[in-house]
Protein: Aldo/keto reductase
Organism: Streptomyces cadmiisoli
Amino acid sequence: METTETTRTLGNSGMRIIALGFGCWAVGGEWQDADGQPLGWGKVDDEESVRAIRRALDLGVTFFDTADTYGAGHSERVLGRALGKRRDDVVVATKWGNVFDEDTRTLTGSDDSPAYARRALTASLRRLGTDHVDLYQLHLSDADPVRAAELRDACEEFVSEGLIRAYAWSTDDPERAAVFAAGEHCAAVQHRLNVLQDAPEMLALCERAGLAGINRSPLAMGLLTGRRPAGRPLAAGDIRSNPPAWLPGFTAGAGADPEWLGRVDALKEVLTSGGRTLAQGALAWIWARSPRTVPIPGFRTVRQAEENAGAMDRGPLTAGQSAEIDRILGR
Ligand SMILES: NC(=O)c1ccc[n+]([C@@H]2O[C@H](COP(=O)([O-])OP(=O)(O)OC[C@H]3O[C@@H](n4cnc5c(N)ncnc54)[C@H](OP(=O)(O)O)[C@@H]3O)[C@@H](O)[C@H]2O)c1
């Protein structure tokens, strides 16, 4: 259902989308770093991924976020295949900056040079089966700001060549995001935002600079769905089974952290008001948080796609409900 509360314009790009994107990290399947640390979400069924993406399209989702590195190229291929002739009906966002080996599905390093950005873009276009990327995003969250300014200029060249329509930086640092925001065709910043992990400074930057906030981990990597009980380890090959330092809320070998689940439990009544599921309530909180937000929940099944797209039917939480959540969390 399209309402003014659930549609967004990406910066000044003119691209108008439903305020819900689908995040395609998990559908990339398994990949790892050179030490064997899993970087994907475990095994996936590509046919189910394709069905889930097409179901999302049927339910009105018009924005998909992926990265060249998810599944070492696999996520882009699956997304391109699923979109097929409907490519021009949607806004496709991908990312670059990490270097990987497609054959061994291994992350091998990173490259912040403009020359690599052009090579990475060419490869993404091929895998996605398209002639342009709508939103091209720098994936190196803590890249050097001086180098990033060069990459921003490279992105301006890509825009003038018609290879991309707009660009963004995926970072949680507002000062870095501001470096990209200075570019004419910067339309967004991708940053973490969920009801347990607020991002007031980044949202303030989005407001000041007229950017959309593309919100990753809107379900706190599954914790906000109520389907990750404490003490149940995640499958080997799932990044959450052996979480790196930047991934809180999970413990190696022990699954979801009881303290995080306790906070989810405390919010349950408010988030599930009005017939929402917990995941739908988590998305509704984000829409209520700021009119610039675009949550991009991950998914890997048709059922998850339907539940997450269904959040649009009920729109944002009320201001009173958001205030109640702040009170419960002591914010
Ligand atoms: N650096 C970056 O740029 C960066 C980093 C992180 C994410 N992202 C982007 O943001 C997207 C989303 O963030 P995220 O992957 O961190 O996590 P998320 O959206 O917070 O959580 C997604 C996970 O929650 C579970 N889930 C989703 N919908 C569900 C439902 N309705 N019911 C039950 N479980 C459900 C699924 O995992 P299970 O079924 O396995 O539990 C799913 O993979 C990614 O796909 C990616 O596109 C970007």
